[in-house]
What does this fold into?
Amino acid sequence: MKAVTGNRLCDGAVVYLKDDDQWTVHIAEAAPFQNDDSEAVLKAAQTRVGEITEAYLIDIADDGAPSGRQALRETIRTAGPTVRVDLGVQAGGIR
Amino acid sequence: MPLLKLHGNDLSPALEEPLHEVTLDDWRENPTAHTDATALVLPNAQSLSDIKCDLNGFSVVILEFPTFKDGRAYSQARLLRQRYGYTGEIRARGNVLRDQLWFMARCGVNAFEFSAENANDAKTALQEFSYAYQSCADKRAPVWRRRFDRSVAA
Amino acid sequence: MYRYDEFDATMVAERAAQFRGQVARRLSGELTEDEFKPLRLMNGLYLQLHAYMLRVAVPYGTLSSRQMRKLAHIARTYDKGYGHFTTRQNIQFNWPALVDVPDILDELASVEMHAIQTSGNCIRNVTSDQYAGAAAGEVEDPRIWSEVIRQWSTFHPEFSFLPRKFKIAVTASDTDRAAVKVHDIGLRIHKNAQGEIGFEVIVGGGLGRTPYIGHTIRNFLPKAHLLSYLEAILRVYNLEGRRDNLYKARIKILLNVEGAEKFATMVEKEWAAIRDSDVDLPAEEIARIRDYFALPDFEDLSATDDAFEKARTKDKDFARWVRINTAAHKRSGYSIVNISLKPVSGIPGDISDTQMEAVAGIAEQYSFDEIRATHEQNLVLPHVRQDDLYAVWKALDAHGLATANIGLVSDIIACPGLDYCALANTRSIPIAQRISERFAALGGEEEIGELKIKISGCINACGHHHVGHIGILGVDKKGEEFYQITLGGSGAEDASIGEIVGRGLSSGDVVDAVEQLVQFYLKTRQNKERFLDTYRRLGAEPFKEALYAAA
Ligand code: SF4
It folds into this structure.
């Protein structure tokens, strides 16, 4: 499964595309896409240049957590620095 | 894609007059086949050593800016002006963006095939900076000279 | 230190205004991200793993207290209460919002600072010796020439779109604290046989994927010709450097393909055509800049101070800190104080807003208002009276800034790595933290002596691992973090590129491996030689064996 991610233009926060086509900072709320459908969804997301930047696809597992080769990177990216657990989404600091 | 030309400090839209273009290599290979050529096209990889004689008779030299990142033509422009004494038009072609015009103009480019529509933007871009630290191919006095002139005047 | 006049101030203010316009055009949708990205990069604004990152230039590492306070203010107001000093003497903020960056640039401009050319394929912020103007034995203050280069390279119309980034470092001491041999251009100020002062010009050093030690292309360049000579090098590079392959685009590749001699000939030929043009500054302008770097009003002090000696005898921790963290000053009765940003378990180079305020206050009171950032991610108070050292130590200690480990095993350079950096393969910071914890538990750091550990989270080598006595490079193996060890590197006057020893280690094994290497060194060293010297004497083999005994 895939999810669409990018960075919010105004503040750079890591966001994911939800079912309702809105963006969320919580990966748990990301809409899962079948691998075949995901490219088209990404294409559409990439046109939303006024909202986000650098959109791409990530692999997610059934429970919605990052998976595959980039799992560690995407886990840190969604949560925040492992050396500053007081910062980032993991600390509830970003909405 | 308007053609803009610089006269002194004034940048204004110019009429597209038809040019007869020839690359330096073609020109050198067979000058008689290009006797009516008016514009010399210099690719980025073109070495400019020995170019002085070739410049005679051309009123326009066209330099290429293929991408934002490729900066070879800045050196070429400067060499044409400062080393080879070329005083005609140097025209920038390719990816000619608003935020590069200032650098191009300083290196001696005085005509632009501007990539965006709005010529007023280009005008504004050239007015964003009042001073420059270095001497270059434009007439602008570098800051060190202004400092010096001011201290002499004081 | 240098102060802006109205020309400098106008240029920085106009640049901030220009960027404000560019941000507005991006937010309004007039600019696409593809168009905007090179513009934001030219103003030091990256998009990192979690957020934007703003890299602020600290030209040649020199800061005033007022500037440090402004950095604290920015950290507090626009970021998350801290900043990170980098291996290029700059400071990075990790969480600024794009919409705030124009305001941040205005704030910076108000204290003569900016983020110009801290990124992009241009001449980057020039770096220098953190002891400049204070070091015993320096030929002259390298910051005079660093400032000359700063002005010349700022918005250079010809050299703003080079094949790749371009880094220049300047030193004027025999001990090279600026790593001039691993820069695109390294300048070493020295005296020739006639007693004249000029530059040794070293070109084509660099780290990254293909590390090289630079080549001297000119032994002695008279000072007056510095800028025309630099311009000649840059022009050859701009026209001839490769642009088709990102990894072959640095000047070091051009120089090594052409050969140092041929490259030097190309430069000399170009220089002959421009050396008498008006690229070089007139003597008046150099003198004007030089005046800003006049020595502060030092007092005539005796070399020893009774109270200081007493404090040293009385307080062992203070004595240790003095031994390890202070260096000889050119004036008797003064010392250079190093402030370590590497506490045990800390994040190398990180500093909180309150610590910045504290350093600003201490510098104001005790160091003629001057602070330096070092490429080893520490800070320096360049001019402290010996009889003030005890008070300075106390004040630093109150803010967790008195760790005594400069040059020792826990004074580790680490790049941000996968905790922050979008390009990373692995994390760097946790490795640094665990090494420092391990050696803190073992004790005896001072006994181990000078040992430079440098960690990069990917082959870009921002953590300078190639020139670490022990270098650690993070590599990704099927999504897992692995670390490759290099040994025997140095970025100083005895520069060398470390050799890779063996296969990668898991993050669990890498700390043990470092300990094993150090134990082996302690067993085999002769006459208190450094780790690096033992390695050079014995070669890689015995160290490899020691490493595999651990892994
Ligand atoms: S070395 Fe790699 S991981 Fe570390 S900061 Fe540089 S690019 Fe990022």
Residues 2-91 of chain A form one domain. The longest strand of chain A covers residues 52-59. The longest helix of chain A spans residues 35-46. The two ends of chain A are 25 Å apart (CA to CA).
